[in-house]
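seq/struct pair 1
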Amino acid sequence: MPEAIERLNRALEGRFEIEQEIGRGGMGIVYLARQLSPVSRSVALKVIEPGHGSAQALARFQAERQALAVMGHPSVAKIFEAGIADGGYSWFAMEHVPGLEIHRFCDEARLTIDERLRLYVQVCRGVQHAHQKGLIHRDLKPSNVLVTEVDGKPVPKIIDFGIAKSADPGLLGEERLTRADQIVGTPAYMSPEQIDGSADVDTRTDVYALGVMLYELLVGTLPYPSSAYRGWAALGASLTQPPPSLADRLRDLDAGREKIAEARRTAPSSLSRIMRGDLDYIVGRAMERDRDERYETPAELAADIERYRSSMPVRSSGASAAYLIRTFARRHLVGVAVSAGVLVLIVAFAAVMTVQAGVIARERDRAEQEATKAAAVNDFMAATLLAPDPIEGLGRDVTVVEALDDAVNQLDTAFVEAPELEAAARSAIGWALFQMGRYDDAEPLLERALEVRAQLGSPEEQAESILHWAQLQQVRGRFDSADVLFQRAIQEQRSTLGATHPEVAAALKLRGIMIGELGRYDEAEGALREALAIIEEHGDALGVADLRNQIGVILWNRGSLDEVEQLWMAALASRRQALGNDHPLVAEMLNNLAVFYDNTGRLEDAEPMYREALDVQRRLLGADHEEVAAAMANLAVLLDVKGEFEEAEGLYLEALRIDRGQFGDQHPVVGHDLVNLGSFLCVTGRTGQGVTLIGQAVDLYRDALEPGHWRIANALNWRGVCHREAGDTGGAESDWILALAIMSEALGEEHYRTQAIRTRLGDLYDSLGRPEDAARIRG
């Protein structure tokens, strides 16, 4: 046995028996020892030998044991007792942590990202406890966080408060242990203010160190390359730049990625995907150079990690819309999915109405040359739709649907010698049926109108039919065909009407909306901004407002929020000025702005806008209008989030009743209502009812839409969520597998809806102990 240990054993005789040295530093030597009395146990004994410590080292030694004495947290090593032994040995005995450094433990145990985060949150809470006791650790790093197992579960223990600083100088017995120009800590984990030698170091310096530790815990390396840590000047220069993103740092590791991913029980591609988005936001905020931009406390950092682990929106992200949509799509507690969806419905409805308004305006502009044709078509419509007894022999009141059906039956004989009039009538009736959601009935009419107009060689009317046909392909889920048709219509219009004609702008807008829904945001923004430039040139204030609205939607979905509020506020102001406060288009903008405020956490701004929009729409459109139903659903989402479930449920039910009355039981809008209400029921514990309602939506979509439509996958996704909430993992797995297959085919692998389903299914496999399946799904 070394002579130094023998001397120490003699000095501590009867109290401790030293077994071996386990650590050494500027603040003393740490031994593994056996405490002999008053109890027998293993301890970590920290000792300063007489004559070996400076006055400052002795002061820090006393401060550390005082710091440990005031704390009592499962994630902070406990102190048992302290004293001065014969010969002048200062010592204190603390809890011995027979474990590994946190990063090494995680790698050797091959902990998943979620398991690492669970462990890390405990560290944050231990540091928070220290802060609540008025202590700043100032040297947080992996070697000062050891992980041991208690009852078979890993528990982190924070050690070494040797350079801790107190917010209350009297607490640690010294007014100042660090000079204003003295740098203390471990360079790789030190905050910029520590490196600058600032005396004004507060709890946020520990938040920075926690950020570096999290970075390393996730991707297996420090944020900056090794050259950045070679001297204070190099490190200080590196810290003037934000750290590389987690995914970029991982990519730079090249061959090491395989080993790092394996230690996290995943594939390199899956790990890179996980590192994008939320976790990168969290690490980035914890490591902000400006401490005012960091998390205020470790508890706030831990809360964001817990929100991420629960698939809730994290607070550090700036609440970008794309991010919020992704996280809401991942949530098991669904209720909020309608926010973005209803926004799309509002925009889609406005687009349809705008196209119809454009058709009417075009017919008015060309009234003289079209007079004969219009009169003939009008006579036909009047005879079939408006006659006192439209369907001879029925002997009862006739619905619009029945009248349209009868008009279709008469088309083959009404215009035998006038194909141009036949095409116009087929186009008008087909479009009316399209707007009513009767796509199967609309399809042959619109197809025939297009064929006839193509044969007649009328470019303008042919372009109109191409646009109708494109929109039918769109609602059928045939997006590639729809896009080809939109582009063809735009080309036809440019060649016949000129590149700056308002009808070119209308077609650009329709295409922009569709490709935006497919996630092709840059391309969509380009089309819509081109349309905006055309409409601005023509001085159409309401057209400009509409396109600002549409561009705002694209920016919202892409997550570029800086301009969204400005665009929508300008659109609202233009509509108020042109139309007054009581107008459906004003209500639409109120709804959209309310969705913006709702999803960016400004609930106090959102709720009055939702309610004003709903009030306007009820007054102007009537209580049973589909726009009223959309506004109700939006308000229901907000109330759901606030926990005002009774009013929220009433609004969900009323929205469903209205849409059923307007569209019938088999319209896709009704399917959307069923999904939202079913999801709400799952959130509030009625999973059986929720599964049933969403199942009805699945059946409805399968009947009304093409087999591969993304809305079918969306409904299957939410039914899977309900199954999962109910504990039916088999039902969840089955729904999510099918949903993933449909969604990836319909919208592509990179679309956020596809990724959300992948995340859910991967998490399910993790929870079932099927890591290979999880890796396969995520990879």
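seq/struct pair 2
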Amino acid sequence: MSNLFLKFILFIQVRRAPVLRMVLWSLSLFAGNCALFAQTQLMEKCSPALSQAVQQREDTPLRLALVVADLSVFRQWAGREGLVVLADYPPANIILLEDRSAHFWDKTLPRPDVLFADFGYTTAREELTVPGHNLFTNNIRLTHTLWPDLDGSGVTVSIKEFRFDSTDIDITNRYLPMAKASPTLTVHAGTMATLAAGAGNSDAAGRGVARGSRLLSSNFAGLLPDTGADYEQFQVRVQNHSYGLDIENYYGAGAVAYDQTTQDHPGLLHVFSAGNIGTTAPVSGYYANVAGFANLTGNFKMAKNAVVVGAVDSFGVVTSYSSRGPAFDGRTKPDLVAFGQGGTSEAAALVSGAAAVVQQAFYEKYGQWPASEATRAILIGSTDDTGAPGPDFESGFGNLNLKKAIDLIRHHSIQTASVGPGEIQSFFVELPDNVHEFCATLTWNDPPSLPNAPRALVNDLDLELIAPDGRVWQPGVLRTAPHRDSLLLPARPGRDSINNTEQIRLDRPDGGFYELRVSGYLLPDGVRPFALAAHWDTLQFFQWTSPEGATLTSGETALLSWQTDLVTDPGQLSWKPVGHLNWETIDSAVDPRMGYLRWAVPHTFTAAQVRMRIGALEFTTDTFLISPVLRLRVGFNCPDSVLLRWNAAGPDATYRLWALGNRYLEPMLHATDTSLILKKSNFPQLHFAVSAATLNGNVEGVTSGAPNIAAQGVGCYINNLLALLDDDGESIRLTLDLGSIYGVNRVFFEKQIGGDWQIIRESPPPGLQVQHTDLLPQQGANTYRARLTMDNGGTLTSEPVVVYVAGARNFLVFPNPVRPGQTFSLLANTEDEAPKFLLCDPLGRPVLEQAVENFKTDLIIPALAPGVYGWRVAGASGKVLSA
């Protein structure tokens, strides 16, 4: 064959030289096209960011996340190649390893079992730290008031990021220790844990959404899910992810992994913060350079079965920094929004806590824990529409409303079922004649798509609503073209072929039986489970959301808020103390559509109510308390007893003392005074709080902060004795701070003179602070102490304090004489930058030299012969300052 080929080439060379050039050019072109085709195939296996980096062909270290066909086979090969494996997630065949770019390009990426490659990350960025706390915006406080037993009991909430402080008293005895928790402790992680599930022991701001849930800290190193064994062992049903990366608009390894977890653990719900770069434009992908859209932070937020949460302010308006959708393939993101004045981290934590409460409510009604698709349907199906009507890429499907979510479970409709290819499942809902808004939400958990797929959805279900008269409604569908104008357009009814959440909202529908149809449009995996939630509000609806369950601070501005559909007439807002007949006007012409009003709360202590009158209708709040903020202080902390005191709430107030029990603050005793002395044998706790109530005890306010009595810097009556040399250097001012004067007979200031303590002042206690000035301090050390004599005959003495006085010469050496090896001290009151102390023998020769850096410098006499030695202090220039 080779000889024939050689003869053919020679023949062409002789007879057809131009033909030879054409053949060789064709072969070269074919080879080049083959190489280009192979290179293109390799690039298609890389994420956009990685494909740009590897094309540079520089041999640099890479940390990679790979999706492979067979994890065990690939691991064996990686071991032979000397690659360092950092982590893996076997359910999705994902491996995190270290490689070099040349080896990756030439050997790793061309392997046919490498399906996808991306940069691997060992950690992410926590989203913005949270400065605020608000449980009113999403009707969380109202839910606590209406259903105090709904607190997330039975649910484990995992906080996946750095570690929170498990000793925080708002988490006491609800923390589950996990070996894989991060070694790094951060305030951000503690804030997320508190918002999701804080008990409110420390103070009112420490109360989270689900104070009954268990808490787990999981390290987000590697950014992969926890193992299935961990999820099962700790019974994790909600995992919060308040962190992000850069904008990554593609379906990558993170999205694959988290979508896989919901296939393996159907009850597990992942909650991600959307990100805090809402005005940023992505630099790559389908939505490149579209400012203010498609800027979710991290490809794991492209997962279909997770809830991605944006942020609103206290008025339900989406914040400018809250990251927007759509997802890379046009899917609606975020899924919903929640209060997040300090960032979407806060919003996600509130939704995680809300999910725990929803799961508990579902369990109590149906006797089983919900699948995560049902939790999603309830949370999304009970939101308040905000922004543009229907879904949008700023607020998703709406603003979290926990009260409506519980209403949906208890009084409305939640269906879980399955549908096969071409099948239709029908459900019927009877609506009354006075419905203001009807909302139906369909959700299903979808298996992972192939990484880098242009569209993530695998199984396509459809939702339709059929009215009694035969009219048909379809879900709201958004335009997804990569143009700002298109992305801002409101949703319009249509068939949704990209989302695994579909929602139909209907304003003022007629009463009657409505049919909800769920059909299996495209189901390559066969039968697919789903959840369908239906909720409706009635006309002439009015709901107070604040101050329900709150204590309003007297003399400060409070936010009164409500929800209503009564928007045609102005409202009249008024208040009155309970027991009074007359209402006092707050505002005579309130626009009900505003939903809130700021009220300057009167300076008073009283139980009160607020009333809204709209036309002939009146809506009155539950009774709440107006009170100043209570602040508990420690008066003294003795070995056998402790004095607690607090400011008075009002002349008619009574008080209740609380102490930290096994998990929560527990009531101890009632008091009418503003101080208590507790015997530690009866009250061994370290944390106490106090609350105020009306004289009859019918209305009680929130508890004060609960400080650790051992960490307040308060001693047994004597908090602190301070002695300061006055600026003129000729007198010493003594200040004694007392925690209490209860039982104190007399106060003594004493000075040590000649080895004895001599009284320099004696008086009854004039108050919690006692002062005295010593006008005749001596050169050198002046030592003082305070002594208390008690009514019971006891005596308390402070620790001694020492003040050194250099005298008129500004320099002093003491003691004098001094023995070899003994320490002596130099007091130097000088502004020279680098003074030196020199000790000289009788001939003037230095035998000791030392820099003087402080007002008091301690020196040790070297082994010298007995005799008289001279000293001097010289400045940086050599000038003698003193001798």
